[in-house]
Amino acid sequence: MVEVIWTEPALQELDAIAEYIALDNPAAASRLVQDVFEKMERLERFPDSGRLPPELPHSIYREVVIPPCRVFYREDQQRIFILFVLREERQLRAYMLGNS
User: Fold this and answer.
1) Total-model pTM
2) 56-85 tens-digit pLDDT
3) Which residues contact 42 (CB under 8 A, 6 or more apart)?
4) Angle at Cα 57 formed by Cα 53 and Cα 63, nearest 5°?
5) Looking at the DSSP assignment, which residues form a beta bridge with residue 3?
6) Which domain holds residue 70?
7) CB contact set of 78 (below 8 Å; sequence gap of 6+)
8) In this structure, are strands 69-76 and 79-87 parallel, antiparallel, or unpaired?
9) What's the pLDDT at 88?
10) Which end of the chain, N or C, is less packed with Cβ atoms under 10 Å?
């Protein structure tokens, strides 16, 4: 099994998404956060279960889609780093280039 490590930017972005959802529906925000953590735990046993991001087909990064989020990660030997959480409707390349 590999170790799953959440980076601070990923946690902050997930928190921001949950806070926004909580403005209208606190229970849904709580369910989302719980769902994201539960789904990402499967990477401990199945690190390649995420897909390659369609925008980056030859990348070292993978993603898991948990609506309304896309969770990006990369594997480094016996560790998985959760790097970023992005709302599904945002464009990945535009966001990475700072043109969101």
Assistant:
1) 0.86
2) 888 899 999 999 999 999 998 899 999 999
3) 49
4) 20
5) 79
6) 3-96
7) 2, 3
8) antiparallel
9) 77
10) N
